[in-house]
Design a protein that fits this description.
18 strands, alpha/beta, six-stranded parallel β-sheet, 441 residues
């Protein structure tokens, strides 16, 4: 560290009234949402997926054990679930790992059902604290806005919001309050993904073609029945992963200009759910340097059969000078165990198996995604970094993820217009989408 920086510290230490640089200050974290990703608790039992112990709560308790987090809060809609959630966390976290303090303030109270409980929860936190939102897609905007108003830094699961208008409003609000607002896309910390991005950006030239597929088994329709087809769809939920990969990878290289949506139906309808089984978005990208075109096809499904993995996920990317294939579902590790189905496992995402009784998943990209955000918030609070520093691709900040929202919204609009292509309209900078309009033939 530079001598001037050290000198400042010395001065601050000797002046009791001056505030010391406070990266030492721990983050207080409010988790909004009590479902599968936060707690692993679904329908009164452990989730039947690759996330039975959850991800968010487990990570926050571990960050507290490691001195980065202090107060932890959790907010849902139905307080009657909390006794079950506490038992579940004790069984899957407290009884499995040593030294895990599961103390957690919960909102609303155990006998209350309140969709606006997040307002009470947020009021007990201060500016500079951290909110992590894992709730149904259509609730992201209101909850995020309430957190920003209070001066909280916010991380929201993908898709951050469902419309360009909401996204633009969040950027404005975050700027006014000078808070860090970011989308949680843990795939950015997947070493395969990160390397694919860097290769594509540095060696593959202009964008030509990409095909991405992501699926989840049909029983997820039950997990998500409260909102599936009513307030969101499988494209917002799963296509958002690879669309974010494209926006992150092609930043400064290409921009999306047209989106066409097509779907398949049948399975969800037969269960009485008015939603698509799979959605394919075909996106025309335009290379910025010479206006040449590239094409990307993103397909997502939630009617897959139960297989060796919870989620099939793979993509093929081609540039003018090279191509890359990534199968993120199969990392070359399979497990067969009495009483359990054969599985291809991915400890790179979450390593739940303890080492000498301790949680040892700190290197997993599921954990890193949150830890990097908490570290960033602490650095901003300490004055060591500015919010703008993180627009460099190191986090999926609200200001650098607008194209993804535009693609997802345009895809939904195209589906609702019987597959009519939708054009993405850009402002003066040529980089940030400002609108969507039906394509004129």
């Amino acid at each position: 560290r530079s001598s001037t920086h050290f000198h400042t510290n010395i001065i601050n230490m000797s002046a009791p009234e001056a505030k010391r640089p406070k990266l030492a200050d721990k983050a207080n974290v409010l988790m909004v949402g009590t479902g599968e990703y936060t707690t692993g608790y679904v329908g009164g039992t452990a989730a039947d997926s690759d996330k039975g112990a959850g991800v968010v709560a487990l990570t926050m308790f571990d960050l507290r054990r490691r001195g980065k987090v202090d107060r932890v809060g959790m907010c849902g809609v139905n307080g009657k679930k909390f006794p079950g959630i506490r038992n579940h966390m004790q069984k899957n976290i407290g009884d499995v790992y040593n030294n895990m303090d599961l103390t957690c303030d919960t909102f609303p109270s155990d006998e209350t059902v309140d969709p606006k409980a997040y307002l009470d929860a947020v009021s007990t936190f201060q500016a500079g604290d951290v909110a992590i939102i894992f709730t149904p897609d259509d609730t992201h905007y209101d909850i995020t806005m309430a957190c920003i108003e209070k001066g909280l830094h916010v991380m929201v699961t993908k898709p951050i919001v469902q419309t360009l208008e909401h996204h633009t409003n969040l950027i404005k609000a975050a700027k006014e309050k000078n808070v860090l607002v970011s989308m949680e896309v843990h795939k950015r910390w997947d070493p395969f993904y990160a390397d694919a991005r860097d290769r594509a950006r540095s060696q593959f030239g202009n964008f030509q073609y990409m095909y991405a597929y992501m699926s989840q088994p049909k029983h997820q329709l039950e997990t998500f029945k409260a909102w599936a087809g009513k307030s969101s769809d499988i494209s917002f939920y799963l296509n958002s992963h690879h669309i974010d990969f494209s926006e992150w990878t092609l930043e400064g290289i290409a921009r999306p200009i047209r989106v066409t949506g097509t779907s398949s139906t049948g399975v969800a309808h037969s269960k009485g759910m008015k939603t698509e089984d799979s959605i394919t978005l075909t996106v025309q990208w335009e290379n910025l340097n010479d206006k040449s075109l590239g094409c990307a096809v993103y397909t997502s499904s939630w009617v897959a059969p139960k297989g060796d993995v919870h989620s099939q996920q793979r993509f093929f990317y081609m540039g003018t000078n090279g191509e890359i294939n990534v199968d993120q579902a199969h990392r070359g590790m399979t497990v067969a165990q009495d009483g359990k189905p054969f599985a291809s496992v991915n400890p790179l995402f979450m390593k739940y198996t303890p080492t000498n009784g301790m949680f040892s998943g700190q290197g997993s990209y599921g954990v890193k995604s949150f830890e990097c955000f908490v570290d960033a918030c602490r650095a901003v609070n300490a004055g060591e970094k500015t919010v703008q520093d993180y627009d460099d691709g190191s986090l999926a900040t609200v200001g650098t993820t607008v194209q993804g929202t535009a693609i997802l919204e345009a895809g939904r609009l195209s589906l609702d217009a019987d597959g009519r292509p939708m054009d993405i309209v850009y402002g003066e900078d040529g980089h940030t989408p400002v609108g969507i309009k039906p394509h004129e033939f």
